[in-house]
Amino acid sequence: MKLSIRVDASTQIGTGHVMRCLTLAKALNSKGAKCHFICRQHEGNLIELIKNNGFTVTALPSGDSFKPGTTASLAHADWLGVTQEEDARQTIAALDKAGQPVDWIVVDHYGIDATWESMIAPHAKRIFVIDDLADRKHACHVLLDQNLGKTKADYAKLVRENSVTLLGPQYALLQPQYAELHQRTPPRQGLVKNILIYFGGSDPQDLTGMATKACLALNCPEIKLNVVLGNSYAHRPALEQLANKYSNLHLHQNLPSLALLMLEADLAIGAGGSTSWERCAMGLPAIIITIAANQIPIANELHKAQAAVYIDKVENVTESNIEQALRNWLVRTDAVEWSKRCLALADGRGVERVAAAMGVGVNTPLQARLANLNDEALLLEWANDTLVRENSINSKPISESKHREWFYRKLRQPDTCKIYIVETTDGLPIGQVRFDWNEEKNGWLIDYSVDATLRGHGLGSRLLEKAIQELRIVKQNALIFAEVKEQNYASQKVFAKMNFEKNEYTGGDCYLFRCQ
């Protein structure tokens, strides 16, 4: 698989877009993909960092003098440095030089929308967009928004009807270390003994210094303060003077990952960007100050979920505000519950899911397991998928309470109901297959669905084969039936491919398929 990744970093844009694309590129590279970056030479770019990580880069001219004017259609049009048309032409030249079309072009840029993507489309088999804003239209095959609270409705009018949307922190592009540590990270409990402070690469408003002084004002020398400075942070000398004075203050810079410091901490103080999902994966509650408009919805959702305390936007925050938020936190007795909620929001395996979804195909190894309580939300999501409801006997959406009642009842009927989750060997859920015993037909009635993100890869029959193999380990020579709506041609083809015998109507508008 060949990919090109169009992403930028700059003093204005920050480093987060490039860092998450690097994480994705490394995950895909480990599976044999070849990844190439296309980046503009803005001030503060990370082109050398990308090269140092082993990837080739096509460097586009800076375009830093570009001014989009007041008629620009995108809120972040100036981030691109040139017009979208000019950027697309330069990107196409880079793609053609590399010998294209590529299998995927990944674009992570607030200054790009459907205008650019439509120009690129003939030069890439598929387009993958990473977004956080839901403020512009996209002409893509897959869109990823890793932020809490986003729903399909947010993008319904912004992407094509057949576009796949990967939404939520379960798809957050975090370094593998977070997934490794997540599963053995216990919830925080007891007194706060360690506070982590980090506000990104440059922190021009010096929230780092403000938060550090607020922590010192608590007069709690027993609390260790780990302060991480970005490479562009301009106020290090002042913090070094404080570190010389206070033995509990420790400064860090040029760290490959924040994971270990997060694991050590009991509380974090930071911004509301993508670091939020790293903190959640480590079960680390936070006090948040937003430093950009796109962080405000994230901070509000985390505050509502009681996984973080959102103080305010940077322009409204003082050292006194931070100190008061700290004092309020130190007297809390329910920190363990906050930590558990953080752990539930992100497991650190988002990059595995995204990489698997991009690379899945008819030859991807699959495995089947019986559903458990942790699969409740996933099964409800699949059950309420638009296409699943259209093809169901009862097409009405299912409420959370009705689904829970049904799911719990089915789990208590292991002799007459088998629900299998079919997934890749690296844990990406592909879909579900359910077998219900039918006394009248003396056989098992089958129901199945493929995750919307993975349709079109020829996985339907393989999903069924894997689940049927598992059923027949415990129910040898089982007779299996399927009722398929007359207009559900896709499922009819799947069952025919698997040599199910097609009978006439069962009544209503359904065909009956059977397999011994």
Task: Summarize the structure in words.
By secondary structure, this protein is of the alpha/beta class. Helices cover 34% and strands 23% of the residues. The strands form three sheets. The chain has a seven-stranded parallel β-sheet with strand order 3-2-1-4-5-6-7, sandwiched between helices. Strand 8, helix 7 and strand 9 form a beta-alpha-beta unit.
SSE order and pairing:
Layout: E1 2-7, H1 16-29, E2 34-40, H2 47-52, E3 56-60, H3 84-98, E4 102-108, H4 114-120, E5 124-130, E6 142-145, H5 152-155, E7 164-167, H6 176-182, E8 194-198, H7 207-216, E9 224-229, H8 236-245, E10 249-253, H9 259-264, E11 267-270, H10 275-281, E12 286-290, H11 295-304, E13 308-313, H12 319-330, H13 335-345, H14 350-359, E14 366-370, H15 376-383, H16 386-390, H17 400-411, E15 417-424, E16 429-438, E17 443-450, H18 460-474, E18 480-485, H19 489-497, E19 501-507, E20 510-515
Parallel strand pairs: 1-2, 1-4, 2-3, 4-5, 5-6, 6-7, 8-9, 8-11, 9-10, 11-12, 12-13, 17-18
Antiparallel strand pairs: 14-15, 15-16, 16-17, 18-20, 19-20
Helix pairs in contact: 1-14, 3-4, 7-12, 10-13
Portion in strands: 15-25%
Count of strand segments: 20
Largest sheet: 7 strands, parallel
Rg over alpha carbons? 26 Å
User: What is the general shape?
Assistant: globular
Mean pLDDT over all positions:
91
End-to-end gap:
39 Å
Structural class: alpha/beta
User: What is the percent of helical residues?
Assistant: 25-40%
The unreliable regions are none
Which strand order do you get reading across the main beta sheet? Answer: 3-2-1-4-5-6-7
Number of helices: 19
